[in-house]
Amino acid sequence: MQKINLFDTTLRDGEQSPGVNLNLQEKLEIAKQLERLGIDVIEAGFPASSKGDFQSVKEIASTVKDSSVTGLARSVTQDIDIAWEALKDSAEPRLHVFIATSPIHLEHKLKKTPEQVLETAVEMVKYAAKKFPIVQWSAEDACRSELPFLAQIVEAVIDAGAKVVNIPDTVGYTTPAHYGSVFQYLKENVSNIDKVSLSAHCHDDLGLAVANSLAAIEAGATQIEGTINGIGERAGNAALEEVALALNIRKDFYQAESGLVLPEIKRTSDLISKLTGMTIAPNKAIVGKNAFAHESGIHQDGVLKNPLTYEIISPELVGVKQNPIVLGKHSGRHAFRTRLVELGFVLEDEQANVLFEKFKDLADKKKDITDDDLFALVVHKQVNH
Ligand code: KIV
Ligand code: ZN
Asked: Counting C-beta atoms within 10 Å of the first and last residue's C-beta, which end of the chain has fewer, N or C?
């Protein structure tokens, strides 16, 4: 089974979500929970971006032991030096340095030629590798870059000492088949590619970040970057809990696994949602309130007979503790009577049938029927009997 490393950037790209601003204590709490979750690499921040980011990266680097800690740097020596000061106390100092490679970024943002970008990338990787045992290099906007240039610069940074090469889909432009073909191209056109671990970093502008990440795994990526709950710049990053579950549930297909401690997922998701203030959509996969809830009578009947009829993931696997049966107007008799028994009411058939009709009347007027509603129904019926 191929091990896929999960690189979590909740504290860097995730914190770039508009409106999110975490303080040092909050970042530390999240980092410790990411460590418990079994994340391989935690990107704790961008040390040169602010004093606060520097401080939190430094604190996390000296506190977290079971995950590797990294920080982001632009391709300038000052950023690399500041990142070193923040990360030097970590168990295995690791730098994440990037430069853009697409024509649109070169022309309008960097105002550099491809040759100048290649030279800077090589110089900065060499500079960083003198300090850091592990240097990860990222080609910003890789998916809108010209492939021959991408291959040329990747080959050069590997020679310069990069240990991980990341191919970000910075603007969420790629699709699964296209992203896979970019990795394939690099494998066929970069002579030293076997010396590095290839990484995928996807944004969700087209809602494809997780699908693209999985396509990258099929094409040889061994590291996936993303955030918990998929938070991040604009439409966000790939949701790591979704990637991990796809690998777990479909290991028959991927023949790969992450080291995530799956039962810690819900706790981690709740913590990050609370501290960032970013609420989770009820229908969000894995961690949404409705992700394991069944409302239709046909589904409820099936799940009560055997959960596998309509559940591919058991809620306990990801740390969710909730009653999967939601009583509402689509529920059938089976779910209704099962819940009554759970509440301690064992009724005769006739009595249950009368109550079921009353329950249906109520459900037509009210979205969700709570246990209190059921109590009221039964007690009212018994009083008026
Ligand atoms: O999306 C992106 O390109 C990034 C890089 C800094 C890796 O976040
Ligand atoms: Zn990003």
From this structure: C
Q: Which residues contact 204 (CB under 8 A, 6 or more apart)?
A: 172, 210, 230, 232, 234, 235, 236, 237, 238
237 is in an annotated binding site: yes
Per-residue DSSP letter, 322:
S
Name the closest ligand to CA 139.
1
Determine contact, residues 342/325, Cβ cutoff 8 Å: no
In percent, the amount of the chain with pLDDT more than 70 equals: 99
- pTM score, two decimals? 0.94
- Report residues of the chain scoring pLDDT below 50: none
**Residue 327 φ/ψ, nearest 5 degrees:** -85, 130
- Residue in this structure with the two tokens 């959960």, named with its chain if needed: 307
Copy the structure tokens of residue 374. 């059921």
Provide ipTM, 2 decimals: 0.99
Name the residue among 199, 275, 267 with its Cα closest to residue 237: 199
The residues that bridge with 72 in the sheet, in sequence order, are: 96
54 CB near ligand 1 (under 6 Å): no
Q: Which two tokens stand for residue 182?
A: 């970019």
